[in-house]
Structure prediction request, 908 residues.
Amino acid sequence: MASTVPYRNGSQKGALNSNPKSALKSKPSPAASGPRRNSTGTFAAAPSPGKDNPGISGRVRVAVRLRPRNAEELVADADFADCVELQPELKRLKLRRNNWDSDTYEFDEVLTEFASQKRVYEVVAKPVVESVLDGYNGTVMAYGQTGTGKTYTLGRLGEEDTADRGIMVRAMEDILAEISPEIDSVSVSYSQLYMETIQDLLDPANDNISIMEDPKTGDVSLPGATHVEVRNQHSFVDLLRLGEAHRFAANTKLNTESSRSHAILMVHVRRSVKGKDSALPSENGNTSNMLKTLKPPIVRKGKLVVVDLAGSERIDKSGSEGHTLEEAKSINLSLSALGKCINALAENSAHVPVRDSKLTRLLRDSFGGTARTSLVVTIGPSSRHRGETASTIMFGQRAMKVENMLKIKEEFDYKSLSRKLDIQLDKLIVENERQQKAFQDEIERITIQAQKHISETERNYADALEKEKLKYQEDYMESLKKLEEQWAKEQQKHSAGKTRIELKDDGLVKTPREESLAVSSVEEVVEVKRLLQEETRLRKSAEEEVSNLRNQLMRWKRSEAAGNSEISKLRKLLEDEAHQKQKLEEEIAELHNQLLQISFEADETRRRLDGGVAGNVPSGLDSLISQVRHSQLRDSGDGEKVSMAKLFEQVGLHKILTLLEADDADVRIHAVKVVANLAAEEANQEKIVEAGGLTSLLMLLKTTEDETVHRVAAGAIANLAMNESNQELIMAQEGIRLLSMTAANAEDPQTLRMVAGAIANLCGNDKLQMKLRAEGGIKALLGMVRCRHPDVLAQVARGIANFAKCESRTPSQGNKRSLLIEDGALPWIVQNANSEASPIRRHIELALCHLAQREINAKDMISGGALWELVRISRDCSRDDIRSLAHRTLTSTPTFQAELKRLRIGYG
Prediction:
């Protein structure tokens, strides 16, 4: 039964795995999609990057892969034994000279004809991909005779069977799984070296691309090639299919679809580094408060080069003639030049002939350069091609002697920082203008209202005063008129009575009637006097009322004067605001100048780092204080920053922990930073806990009010909380209560992120759930959403997802409602289930799926709107595992099924 390899357009043809024993296909296991750090290859993993590491030595790693016999060999070589014997457990290969003599060779990995594509990827390419994601250059290359399976190993698309996917497809899957599409980017170019001419496989019209070498770094690039940004795996496979369709191939005796060019796939990865302190030192060596706010993000740039070399061949065996013969000569010349370079590097020769071929120029960084390189040499079993097999094996043996100096590529992203500052500046200007406009409008409104009120009051009191005055004048005149009339009447009566008295001659004898008239007159006079007194009293009352009205008018005038004074103050405030705006614009201009200065200083620092100046490491407790105070990198040229490992060895953990109780606040702050850096390494965590470091960190949260100490201590506790035994110690020492108290008092998003990360780690422990909830852990998580910072919200979402996951797999909780729902977390979960930030959305989707696995939570989730989010997740989630979990939960929960049926939503 003939096996298959891909045509250039992705179709299949017989050439590899023709042995019936190799017909079994290995299915991809779940471990293949696991964390990138858990790779099981024999190749060394990427070293830990660091600014103070100028380069790390790394040998070229070589694996050999044996192709099974094809259909032709099964017939022609049926009576002959294979010339190759593999011993994969010893990583050894034997090449037989004859029936009784053989040569033995050792490689980094020996892959039999039954090795799966996944196995080949994990041991050959995955460590290189991990290094590229960490900021290093990496190269994966296949070398061997024509027809031994190089293109099958590297470029297989696996459209019919995913287990057949080659290194290119699997590498891009791992890269896309690790990056964040919002802040990171991946771009690819695909070209071929044909007859010493570089041609673009994505744009065939671009057929003469020049090679560019960076004079400082020696990095090789093809600036004229088409670079396409990749967002998903489907588009990348389409690009590979397009490139393979344009690649030159020919029919020879050794291979019916023989590659006649070297294919070069370049993948450029640009990643932002999170959680790294990038504050820059100022001119006097101290980091000012203003410079602490200018922290440009660090960007790491890695380049992965996958090279599918054309097969070496002998003209008499391949039967090449005409143009195919010229192609074979060009291929052999370029491979010969590559072999010379490998020999020179293996023998430490002073001259390496990299200029002899464009292929060696393209691979200058891969052999003897700064890239991590893995080489897979492919061989066939047939004894007819023993010479070519021996040549291929010797090429791999010499390549194993080549040493590369790996260098990380990271830089400050000043463009991103500049964009953030410009956006912040625009926001400040708009907010200032808005506040100034609102302030002016309020002043004008108050002024108009005060003037209107004063005018209306003056008019009302003037009218009232005039009316009262006229009324009292009328009353006064009417009273005078009545008095005058009454007085006239009394005078007339008095004259008439006097006349009657004089006419009496009998000596003034008065009659009773006359006496009564006299008494009546006296009473009338008394009444008139009383009325006069009453009128006088009323007049005085009117005068007092007029006086009161005048006083009230004076008070209103004083109020008007006070209003004018207030308006003057508001105008002065407006002038002060304008002055403040001018000062703000001056500060903004100063910020721009300082940004330029920082850029210049960063370039100087980078040049000094590239120089690799070595320094001396001080020792002792006194020098420790100096190291902790001056832990930032200096520009004086005397030395580099002392690494945490050397500091730990020379000074000792107990002495470092004693500085946590120092009276000097600066020493205490830098000491806790040292402990936090040590806690970031898993190897140091057990020692820190045994020495009482965990207790000291918790005590700092309890006794210290400095938020910087809180932030760094919480970060160290979060690192320690990743260990299950440490989680129980944290809970036993009231760690949740102290973290909750820190979260309630903190305002800085970074402090809240550290606290939320520590609580989120504790939420993943099944044994501590009840105690964590009783001590307010869930309430503390939900309280931190007030910050609204995406990093804080991502940690809160992770904690909720961990808690929900533990609840779903705890049998004792099956008949009880979720503690998260009881503490009111469901509304926030539903609100952020479709968040734009992918880390928040991914954790919230997981939390919803785990909550839905318990039937008792179904009614609360339906009433809270979570059912609709579960339906959306089961249909639109980008991750297959979460989408499958949501679908399985919806179909297995009777309550959800009944509600969907009631709403007439078809789901099965």
Observations:
- Residues 512-611 form the longest helix (100 residues).
